[in-house]
Amino acid sequence: MSKVLNKVVGGSFIIEDLDFRQLVSPEDFTEEHRMIGDTASDFVAREIAPHDEEIEKLNYELTVQKLRKAGELGLLGADVPEAYGGLGLDKVSSTLISERMTKASAFALSAGAHIGIGTLPIVYFGTEEQKRKYLPALATAEKVAAYCLTEPTSGSDAQGAKTTAKLTDDGEHYVLNGTKQFITNAGFADIFIVYAKVNGTDFSTFIVERTMPGVSIGPEEKKMGIKGSSTCQLILEDVHVPARNLLWEVGKGHLIAFNILNIGRFKLAAGCLGSSKDAIEYSAKYANERQQFGRKISSFPLIGKKLAEMNVRTYALESMVYRTAGLFDEGLAEVDHGGENVGLQAAKAIAEYQLECSINKVFGSEVLDFVADEGVQIHGGYGFIQEYRIERIYRDSRINRIFEGTNEINRLLIPGTLIKRAMKGELPLMQKAMALQSELMSLVPGQTFEGTLEQETHMLSMAKKIFLMAGAQAVQKYQTKLEQEQEVLSHLADMMISVFAMESALLRTRKLIDKMGEEKARNAIDMTVVFVHEEFARIENWAKETLAVMEEGDTLRTQLSVLKKLTRKSAVNTLGLKRQIAAKVIEAEKYVL
């Protein structure tokens, strides 16, 4: 895997430009990466697909059996260091596994919860004793893990949890009491990562074993989708947890919870990528099989337009996901899993890209919802029938906008995190915004672009300026009360999400051009042009709405005049480009680069 030239600072994409050689993309996959991906795909085809209906009926025994089979193949140990029974692979490898496992539907969620949010707290924050005791069994699914944060009265407000932990007088145990809600894998998990407040105040993390007296499991929730995964309450009644099962330190639970959720958000986006590709494949094949008015429905331009738009958004998502995997590989490579300060190292390395994780989660879950919805529409009435896989993808996709912090919460976190980093001096955000003010008043109108992607690269640069313009105005107007202006924060978040997506697609396409030439990269170029122009229009609209909230009269007119200068561009025939993209998807009957 190609290495990043210089370590990229989290959030810096909004104020700095990246060289395409700094980007990690699927084109960098090694032979080992491809083998890992093929192993995951083959496992799903051989071990899961033949038992799909039975797993969907929530067969605990079968799910655990298949998890152990996945463990034998190394599919559960990619993130676990070799010293503790895992494979210690890079994040690109584990991302590839997450993407390829999605054809396993709800089983992929069971596996993902186990290897991600269930196991990683011990990988990054466990003591040497805890790692040696639990990780080898988790890497093989001899023991299955679950992550227990949500409670009946606290979801996104994790620190509002009411579960308590009290140290016994002899200091040997913590006594836990409380109930955890919507716990994936709870029906058959052996190990629970539980968050509780020591003495009712200090948010902390514990490793709880199913066999400990006082641990019980509630009934299965009857869910809209992901029916083959277990979702129950975990009930703790005077559970005596050994003091040595405290993860990291008392009062550090929020750092563990939020950083593990960051990785969970990123892995969720990888899963959404895989499901989006699956939906495109099912839809393109159906469109080529289904005939109406004496011709295949794939020959109708409106069906082709849907397939093209599904493919374009998935291309952007794929570019973002592997870009972020590359960032994590750089950051986490410095973590010494055997060192004394591993917890602090891990927390710092993961937190560096928390903003990018939220961006991936929001964009990925909304791309999948769009792709799944259009997939059902292409199937027509048959898309509503359970016999067709697109129906399940549609139902299963809906939870992703709620999982790992709702998209609304993540939208508030994105600009909030950026501003906090700027206030700490980690990003020169305000300096860039101040420098922009004089530049905006002297903008020269009209530029001509002739080279491939030159206009789109200029539009990306203007999009960053638009964000800085609107963001600086918001900080100046609302100051410490900005967090109360949720609609403004949401618009700023959407601008940042679009910028990251646009830049990821652009950089990847430039990298493809550099590697194989424009002719062979033509479809990627077409997709990038379409995506950048459509996202840019959305950014312009969000900026107009945001400025109109904050100002009025002559001041607003002046700002809108500046915005108009920033958004000047030449129109392109996106509908024509979509026809070309659609033709390739229809011919291949799957997602195409």
Describe it.
With 593 residues, this protein is of the alpha+beta class. It folds into four domains: 132 residues, Orthogonal Bundle (Butyryl-Coa Dehydrogenase, subunit A, domain 1), CATH 1.10.540; 101 residues, Beta Barrel (Butyryl-CoA Dehydrogenase, subunit A, domain 2), CATH 2.40.110.10; 155 residues, Butyryl-CoA Dehydrogenase, subunit A, domain 3, CATH 1.20.140.10; 180 residues, Butyryl-CoA Dehydrogenase, subunit A, domain 3 (Up-down Bundle). The chain is built from 19 helices and ten strands. The strands form two sheets. Strands 1, 2, 3, 4, 5, 6, 7 and 8 form an eight-stranded mixed sheet that branches. The longest helix is centred in the middle third of the chain and has 37 residues. 52% of the residues are buried. The N terminus is likely disordered.
Short synopsis of the structure:
With 593 residues, this protein is α+β, with helices and mostly antiparallel strands. The protein has helices at residues 31-48, 52-56, 60-72, 91-100, 106-118, 120-125, 128-140, 253-289, 301-332, 342-351, 354-379, 389-397, 407-423, 429-441, 454-478, 486-516, 522-550, 553-566, 574-588; strands spanning 145-148, 164-167, 173-184, 191-198, 202-209, 215-217, 231-242, 246-247, 291-292, 295-296.
